[in-house]
Design brief:
4-stranded mixed sheet; alpha+beta; 4 domains; Chaperone, DNAj Protein, Chain A; HSP40/DNAj peptide-binding domain; 15 strands; Helix Hairpins; single chain; about 375 residues; 3-stranded mixed sheet
């Protein structure tokens, strides 16, 4: 029985590149693998044939012999070179691992020590509202792990070097064979570093990094708010095996202000006024972040009224327009009155009662209450 052409088996042309052949085999192997088609003898045969075709066409010498002599050039039973065909010395697990090895730990296939980026750190920075709005520069002290200067981060005692792990050969990964599959996992002896430190550094005890406090200058841009983060590149923990350091993220928290409350670009404040000023009107001095300004209160102002002072708010850090300052007036009831003041207030109350127009809200509320009780059935 004649064998099917290997190029046809994989569905590629005779001038296909090595990458195209590998991709075609991967596709065929995944489609017809016995684990995906249990009990399907046709798929099993196609799987074996695809393996056989790939073993020949992925090898430059075997492919040249096959291109010149066909199956006779690679099959020992047909006079070909021993070990050239699938039934020879080549192991299928080697073929399968060559094609799919990049799925299981490609980093180990590159060889050498594994390097690890240092951890990112976070620092909580409290700011006053004034500093957050105007911007400032702050010095902070950050506890962190930095590369040990004694051993230059190697972890080995000065004058010595880490030795290559004999278990993984310096890859940091070991290969475990499980049937058809070849799975890689972290080396249990060196914990993935690829090296063993037999004589550790006295200062870092083999860790390659030491704990220290470092002082950094943080430039806080104008307009930041609670929750904003400032990234300081490469100011986090030191990496391992020469890996890059992590970053430091400065988390902004604006402290509560005794006068102002911030809402995005706007500022809010409450301004207490006497009921005389509320009734007759007047002029008040109110604070802003830029200094004092004058606020005119018109006559008959009710408590809770908002006065907007444009451009007296905050310019957000992300470039939006400057916000406003909104002043909410609160009419303050006088306290600790003497007998004469109480007498004057009663006289005022008696004069106001004669005409409901002086308290329109009070009288409209009384009318509503009256209608409510009239509609109720007790």
């Amino acid at each position: 029985m004649s064998k099917q052409d290997y190029y046809e088996v994989l569905g590629v042309s005779k001038n296909a590149s090595d990458a195209e052949i590998k991709k075609a085999y991967r596709r065929a192997a995944q489609k017809h693998h016995p684990d995906r088609n249990p009990g399907n003898t046709e798929s099993e045969e196609k799987f074996k044939l695809a393996k056989e075709a790939y073993e020949i066409l992925s090898n430059a010498q075997k492919r040249a012999a096959y291109d010149q002599f066909g199956h006779a050039g690679v099959d020992p039973s047909m006079g070909g070179r021993p070990g050239a065909g699938f039934g020879g010395n080549a192991s299928f697990s080697d073929i399968f691992g060559d094609v799919f090895g990049d799925i299981f730990g490609a980093a180990a296939a590159r060889g050498g020590q594994r390097v690890y980026r240092g951890a990112d750190l976070r620092y909580n920075l409290e700011l006053s509202l004034e500093d957050a709005v105007r911007g400032t520069t702050v010095k902070i002290r950050v506890p962190t792990f930095s590369a040990c200067k004694t051993c230059n981060g190697s972890g080995a005692k000065k004058g010595t070097q880490p030795t290559t792990c004999t278990t993984c050969g310096g890859h940091g990964q070991v290969r475990m064979q499980q049937g058809f599959f070849s799975v890689q996992q972290t080396c249990p002896r060196c914990n993935g570093t690829g090296t063993i430190i037999t004589d550790p550094c006295d200062d870092c005890h083999g860790q390659g990094k030491v704990k220290e406090q470092k002082t950094l200058s943080v430039k806080v841009p104008a307009g930041v708010d609670s929750g904003d983060r400032i990234r300081l590149a490469n100011e986090g923990e030191a990496g391992e095996n020469g890996g890059p350091p992590g970053d430091l993220y400065v988390q902004i928290q604006v402290k509560e202000h005794p006068i102002f409350k911030r809402d995005d670009a706007n500022l809010y404040c409450e301004v207490p006024i006497s009921f005389v000023t509320a009734a007759l009107g007047g002029e008040l001095e109110v604070p802003t972040l830029d200094g004092r300004v004058s606020l005119k209160v018109p006559p008959e102002t009710q408590t809770g009224k908002l006065f907007r002072m444009r451009g007296k708010g905050v310019k957000p850090v992300r470039g939006a327009a400057v916000g406003d300052l909104l002043c909410r007036v609160v009419v303050e009831t006088p306290v600790k009155l003497n007998s004469r003041q109480k007498e004057l207030l009663r006289e005022l109350e008696d004069s106001l009662k004669s005409n409901g127009k002086h308290s329109p809200q009070h009288h409209s509320w009384l009318d509503g209450v009256k209608q409510f009780f009239e509609g109720m059935k007790f």
